[in-house]
Amino acid sequence: MKAILRTDKLCKTFSNEGLQQHVIKNLDLDIMEGDFTIIMGSSGSGKSTLLYALSGMDKPSMGKVFFNDEDISEYSNDQLAMFRRKHCGFVFQSIYLLENMNVLDNILTGALVARKNSPELVEKVKELLNKVGIGEELWKKYPNQLSGGECQRVGIVRAVVNDPQILFADEPTGALNSSSGQDVLDVFTELHENGQSIVMVTHDIKTALRGSRVLYFKDGKVEGEHRMEKYGSDDLKKRRESLQSFLDEMGW
């Protein structure tokens, strides 16, 4: 595998009433193509800040971020917006579907920013919706007519419809019940099995079990990492015990 994302002495500092808070400190990190990378850590450890820096949603204070060996850390805001539109997909805890648009239009609106409408695009959206369990009977419904899990699956389709090279997710099951959360995680697992590169922030062990690599973030740096086989390829009990042991070692 090659690194799809790489950081070089990455730093992110925030100023609060004259005090400097160093959230990311001289971080050197590789995110490998095809990996399902999980970022864990205690509350306030900077997990989401790291995700935003890696994805070009926020600029580093110092250091560099490379995407496929191209330095994006010096991009202008317009260049970063184009980079995200072309190469990245995003799924958040808050789903941000447009309430005045139905399921199909929510996805097509995002897709049309990157390319012109076409019958092929509409068919692709319908195929993806079916694949994540959103059947035709839901395509004309509005977000307030869907469950939380259904909305999140629509959000995933919107994130992947333009074939992003990397998919970023920040606590995507945090607002869902257990059943809906498992359904959404199944979608991420299938995406990974099909080669999608994923970086996901979570505090939930059940979610982290789906990853192939877990990074533990603490005090502005990666404190340790834990490698796993693709989900389902080993005994789930042993997988959980192994991950729990790693997290205990990290002080989880």
Report on this model:
The chain has 252 residues and is α/β, with parallel strands linked by helices. The protein has a single domain (3-250), classed as P-loop containing nucleotide triphosphate hydrolases (Rossmann fold, 3-Layer(aba) Sandwich), CATH 3.40.50.300. It has helices at residues 47-55, 77-87, 103-114, 119-131, 148-160, 178-193, 205-208, 236-250, and strands at 3-16, 19-32, 36-40, 62-67, 70-71, 88-92, 166-170, 197-201, 213-218, 221-227. The protein has a 6-stranded mixed beta sheet with strand order 6-7-8-3-9-10, with helices on both faces. A hairpin with a 2-residue loop joins β9 (213-218) and β10. α3 (103-114) crosses α4 (119-131). It is globular. The model has no long low-confidence stretch (mean pLDDT 91).
In short:
The chain is α/β, with parallel strands linked by helices.
Topology:
Layout: E1 3-16, E2 19-32, E3 36-40, H1 47-55, E4 62-67, E5 70-71, H2 77-87, E6 88-92, H3 103-114, H4 119-131, H5 148-160, E7 166-170, H6 178-193, E8 197-201, H7 205-208, E9 213-218, E10 221-227, H8 236-250
Parallel strand pairs: 3-8, 3-9, 6-7, 7-8
Antiparallel strand pairs: 1-2, 1-4, 4-5, 9-10
Helix pairs in contact: 3-4, 3-5, 5-6
